[in-house]
Amino acid sequence: MSEEVTSTRAKKNEIWEWTRALGIAIVLAFLIRTFLFAPFIVEGESMETTLHNNEKLVVNKAIYYMGDPKPGDIIVFHAEATRDYIKRVIAVPGDTVEAKGDQLFVNGKLVEEPYLAQHKEAWKKEGGTVFTSDFPPVKVPADHIFVMGDNRPNSRDSRMIGPVAISTVVGRAEFTFWPLADMRMTK
């Protein structure tokens, strides 16, 4: 066999190997994005001071294949046909949730919410009176969760849209990755 034929075959093999590697990478990226993790951009101020407008974060889509959302989880869900929301899970199926006197209660027990402290204090210094407005008891139906934003005076959540179907949940927010200076785990 001539050197020219051998060289041509080697080039074809190399091109095939690169094409195959690229194809595998594309398929893996698609599978990871579809079933495991996805990027999400925070839009708005409803989760201040926990999450900020335009922050980018990673959503774990696989976590809820193994179990349902739990109180305290920060989740992304399909709120409208073309829009996803990010909120905190407050109550799960069978729970009764209510707010009175600027305090949140689940099943009649006061919920400690340390993630609100900083924003609640700033809100009151700015002249705000009630951070979490009163609402009557709501029993969370089967296959639903009750969600609220951490910026209670500026959040469209289960108080307005009602309990959220678990089937609409995209995943749990795991960490912010942009801006780089603010990279952190979400809690």
TrEMBL record:
Pfam families: Peptidase_S26 (PF10502). It catalyses: Cleavage of hydrophobic, N-terminal signal or leader sequences from secreted and periplasmic proteins. One of its GO terms (molecular function) is signal peptidase activity. Signal peptide: none annotated. Keywords: Hydrolase, Membrane, Protease, Transmembrane, Transmembrane helix. It comes from the Bacteria. It is an enzyme of class 3 (hydrolase). SUPFAM superfamilies: LexA/Signal peptidase. Gene3D superfamilies: Umud Fragment, subunit A (2.10.109.10). It is found in: Cell membrane; Membrane. Its main location: membrane. NCBIfam families: sigpep_I_bact. This is Signal peptidase I. It comes from Brevibacillus brevis (Bacillus brevis). The lineage of its organism: Bacteria, Bacillati, Bacillota, Bacilli, Bacillales.
